[in-house]
Amino acid sequence: MIYKKIKEANKRQIILFGVIKFTWHKKQKPYRILTKARKSDALITLKCIRNLFEKTATVETLILGDSTARYGFIEDDKTINFGIDSQDLYYSSKILEKYINQIPNLKNIVLFYLPYSSSNNLLKSKTQMYRASYYDAFLDIPYSDKLCAIRNGLIELSKKLLNIHSYYDKNLDKTPKDVMHPKKYTDHNTENMIKRYVNTAFKLSLNDNMLVYLKNIIEKTLDNNLNLLIVNAPYRADAKHIFENLCTENSGNFLLFKSLYDLVQKYDSRKIKIYEAFYDDSFTYDDFYDFTHLNLKGAKKLTGKIAEQLGEFYL
Fold first, then answer.
1. How far apart are CA 185 and CA 242, in angstroms?
2. According to the model, what pLDDT value does residue 204 have?
3. Which of 3.10.290.10, 2.40.30.10, 3.40.50.1110, 1.20.1250.20 would CATH assign to domain 3-314?
4. Is the pLDDT score of 292 beyond 70?
C-alpha cells in the first residue's frame, strides 16, 4: 500500500511504502507537520528551474549534485546551482541531458561526487525516494527504475500533500537564504550516528552499479566540447577519519573513489578534472554546518576553490 493512515489513542501516523514517515499528536494539525520538509525541498527544485530560465543567456557553468552541492556552492550570474537534496547520478545525467542545449554559452559542468555516489540510487532509499516525485512533476524526468510501478500514485500523493500549485505560486520567493546556506553550527549527530552513516556510505562505495550514468555525463560533456570538473565533496575531519579507517580495515590499500578514478583515466582527456576537496585539509570544523555539509563560510571557500579549478582549464 502506498499510503495509509493509522489512528491510535493520542497519535496519528502516515505510512508510505510500508515505512512510517510521520507521527504527530492528535491535537496537532498533520498537514503542517507533514508538508513542511516537502515544501522546502520542492521550492529548491522550482527555484533551480526559475533561476536557470531567468539568466540562461549569461550562464557558463552548471552545477550538479546533491545537498553537498546545494549548500557548498554559491551561484552568481554566470553559474546555476542545480544541486538538489539526494540527487543521484541518474538524475544528474538527466538534468544535464535536458538543459545542455538550452544554455547557449555553457562552458563548464561541475559535478559533486560523494564516496558512495558510484552506487547511490535515490529510488532504493526508503527515507528519500519521495524526492523522485519532484523530478517527474517539475522536470518531466521519469523514474530510473521499474521499482516505481507505483509512480502515478506517488506523484498524485505528493501533489495532494503539498498542494503544489497554490502553495508555490504564493511562496516561491519566500525561501530564506539561510535554508540554502546555514550559517550556524547546529550538528546534533553523535559520534555513533556519524559512524553508522559512514559505515553505510562505505558499503555503498564498494559497488559501482550507478557508474553508467557518470559515463553518460562524461560522454555528454565531451561530445559538446565542455569542461567537466568532478568535485569530491569535502567532509568534516571526524567523518573523513572514519572513512579512512574503514578503507584500511577492509583492504590495506583500498582507495576511496577508485571506481571514479579508473573511469576518468579511460578517457584521458584534458577536458576532465577531479578536484579532491574531500582530502583538502584547508576545510576546518569552522567551515561545516554538520559533518557532511558546509556552512556559509565554507561554501564561500569552496566556491572560490572551484573557480580556481575551472580557471586551470584555460591555462
1. 21
2. 74
3. 3.40.50.1110
4. yes
